[in-house]
Design goal:
The protein is an alpha+beta fold. Helices cover 19% and strands 29% of the residues. Strand 3 and strand 4 form a beta hairpin. The mean pLDDT is 86.
């Protein structure tokens, strides 16, 4: 995967307790914990990311 430009997800808490960063490259989306960027990130396809964020928005995940 090329060098990624990380940005804080709109799904992160404003208080900073649950900070998630995302970066996109082609057909992939990478997700990482912004408090520990040295740890491995999780990568998924854009379709899987769309299903995940849709489920979050509908309150299907807790």
């Amino acid at each position: 995967m090329p060098v990624l430009k990380w940005r804080k997800s709109s799904y992160s808490e404003a208080s900073g307790n649950a900070c998630v960063e995302i970066a996109g490259s082609g057909d992939l989306v990478a997700v990482r914990d912004s408090k520990h960027p040295e740890l491995p990130s999780t990568t998924m396809g854009r379709e899987a990311w769309a299903h995940f964020t849709d489920a979050l928005g509908k309150g299907l995940l807790s």
